[in-house]
Fold this protein.
Amino acid sequence: MLMIAELGHYALVLALGLALVQAVVPLVGARKNDPALMAVAAPTAVAQFCFIALAFAALTICYVRSDFSVINVFENSHSAKPLVYKISGVWGNHEGSMLLWVLILSLFGALVASFGNNLPARLKANVLAVQSWIAVAFVLFILVTSNPFLRIPEAPFEGRDLNPILQDPGLAVHPPLLYVGYVGLSISFSFAIAALIDGRIDAAWARWVRPWTLLAWMFLTLGIAMGSYWAYYTLGWGGWWFWDPVENASFMPWLAATALLHSALVMEKRNALKIWTILLAILAFSLSLIGTFLVRSGVLTSVHTFASDPSRGFFILLILVLFIGGALTLFAVRAPLLKQGGLFAPISREGALVLNNLFLVAACGAVFFGTLYPLALEALTDKKISVGAPFFNLTFGPLFVPLLIAVPFGPLLAWKRGDLLGVAQRLTGAAAVAAIAVAVIFAMEGGGGPILVPFAIGLALFVMAGAVTELVERTGLLKVPFGTAFARARGLPRSTWGGALAHFGLGITLLGIIGETQWSVERIAELKPGQTISIRRYELTFDRMAMRQGPNYRELAAHFTVRRLGEEIGVMEPGKRTFPSRGSGTTETALMTRGFSQLYLSLGDLNPDGSLAVRLYYKPLVLLIWLGAVVMVIGGALSLSDRRLRVGAPKPAKAKAKPALAPAE
Amino acid sequence: MRRLLALVLLLSALVASAGALAVQPDEILPDATLEARARALSKELRCMVCQNQSIDDSDAPLARDLRVLVRERLQAGDSDHQVIDFLVSRYGEFVLLKPRFSPTTALLWLGPAALLLVGVFALFVAARRSRGESAAATAEPAKLTPAEAARLAEILRGDNK
């Protein structure tokens, strides 16, 4: 038991050794076309994962046992902390979260090694080697600058506890989800670099890389949504997205990964956009690396940043420059050698997907500029500026709106050459739904609200109805007998269902965002016990307050009875927790869900006269924001379960028939 | 009653350490239009000791001071513009969450749009080149008849199902 930390440390060093082997030997094998050397990659990748998992398990055991002789445990844990937060505390700090990072990195390597049996040997060897370069860099980073296994000579009796804000079920789930997404993009990157090293790339490449990208994208989506909901109920003032640099750090890879999913589709189906897809794969993971740098280097000082050590920042910056610079250089040298294929007209499915990519990348660029410009400006000129929500709303918004308008058109357009007028006709129904919504909301608002709101709601409904239209069109519902339509619906590939569902989810999220930002109602008041505050049709009576003792905190809880139109419908109990070990506290929001809307109540100061300051919101449709994200993820999962993707085997190329059209984009 | 008072004192001591609301009840102006303007302004001003939080969202003491200041200026009859100018003169551009357009921020403001334009331009060039190449490299088959086009579209649709 005493040696657990040392075992973990040793396992990590061994993992580094394995990673070095995996980074070099398969590459040499692929060059010399030596199957024995190439075959080293897969078992090494699995072993590397096992050793990193061992190191991670060792650190977890130190946390569970509250072994305060380990500095990392001492600084971030407390013996009285509930077990779940002891475990989640492992990644609630810089060193532990980096260990989680490499754990997931090696997990993806091991997955490719285990399930990538249909990959050509050379490609597989190269992919695993590139994946291992990343592992070498980051395991080295941990061992040199951020070792979680260091000891204190004289073990203290009690730990300093985890930041109270992080002691929440949200933290147990949010970082692992996000990291699986973030780090999962490393696979797309490795595939791209492997293709560039080999100088060969075809539609099959896209078919292999797409499921991995999709998997990473799903987790990234879920992780971002989860983080957003966590912030919403934790921070106590009802915000759910702040354009905080740390959020942007996860949002940029999401935008790039979304673009990559769509361009890989073009490449898979039509053998076009190859060079661009490779570049996007590189960019998506580069943005993940930049995000890691922003969060982990301490270059920002935000609520999310729990590390601040310049040597770490320098090390990650070095990794960043090496990997991004190296990848882009390789791209510049090799990309022109790749053959382009698949010609298409501007108005076509491909064209729509290019438009999608154009706007997604530009929107990603807006986030990139807004996040990094102030840092660069300060570093170069010492001039400090702030870039916050108003900037992003002005730049990101206009770039995203055309994208949303185009969403329903894309899937209905034919490949190669589409009929825009025909598609527009088929979208008449969806447009009608949107138009009716605009009119209804305009009438409801009485012309009083912001003029854009009805149109924004209309846009959200257009996106949703567009997704439904696609399914109706493909099944022939309304045109053919119901039985035939049903049979066709069953025959539709799951990826079609998945795509439509994901677009539908996008519309749902949009609806939630507009509902929350435009119709949210706020009340701020001071209440004495017995007094009532009303919002919309709800009345909340402040009954009493009481002290409670938690495992490692004390809580002041207020008791409110909620009535709707005079009828009692429940209670809300917001609270404030104080953690003596850290001398700080958290605000515990009370939420009451009504359909897709929520009542949101959080506590402020208690005044000497016995009155309590409260902040109460009615947030219409707010749950749709996250529900939409979940629907997108379900769409992704459906698409992932599609047999064609699962098997990953390329269909025999049918495109041979048109050699004349091959060498162009 | 004394017990209640003791409880209240104890609780307020606890609560004081546990953060507070952003906008507090005693800050709110009686005049609703003025208050609405104050809230809108607050959303564009940065709490300078926080990370990218507006003074409207932040519960830091400095944010409270700034909120009160904004409301004082509004009550004194300042326009929104004057309030902003006043705060910038006092705290610098750093206080603005939406930086002003200037030579130093031109790249920031124009960057995203420039990126879009570069993308459009690149597409245009790529499209022209590909059209040129395909025309030069091949004798493109004659245009499809509408019937053929429809049939082809059908096949392609079928292929993708």
In short: The domain at 2-95 of chain B is CATH 1.10.8.640 (Helicase, Ruva Protein; domain 3). Chain B has two domains: 2-95, 106-160.
